[in-house]
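=== RUN LOG ===
request id: a7f3
mode: sequence -> structure
chains: 1
length: 186
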Amino acid sequence: MSLPEGITWMEHLDLVSAIRLGSRGLNTFKKCEEYFPERLSQYFVSGLPKDSDEYRDLEASFKSVSLGTNCLVPHPLRLDHMILSIKPDIDSIVITRDVSGGVLQVPLNPAQKEVMSKAIDLMARIDLNNQEMKSAFWVEWEKYPVLSRIRKWWNNLPVHFEISPVGVALSNAYIHSKDPSIPCLY
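=== RESULT ===
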């Protein structure tokens, strides 16, 4: 099945109020190369080089306050870097321990919070301008034929449009006729 090309399909959807077309030449969609890194920014965190003194010091700090290092994982786009696999919300981080008959979740103590805060500051900076990560991201993206086709299609859309509430309802009804397990879009 192919994706629609040209503008005729957009004009039809505009006619039935499923979308609202923008003015030609005034508004365009961001290209995939700009839009998706912004939307998937969690893949563009700086991390720390595995073999750096800074990373070894951070590991030692974790151990000195009895924090496990299992939240330090390889960067998906920079194989020589490590990142945090947790959300950078210091107050929501808990230590999970197996105890007889169950699981115990313990909030971080002040010393652990200080070390975790340092780790977040060092490793969780978003760097959307890093060309090495952008290149690795698009190499990975292109490994998936459907994503590759969507990228080419998206970058060739001739005019900007917005999906109207009618369009959301139509798309929701259509997708649920194909797979009712998919959650509602609204």
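=== NOTES ===
The radius of gyration is 23 Å.
Residues 110-123 form the longest helix (14 residues).
=== END ===
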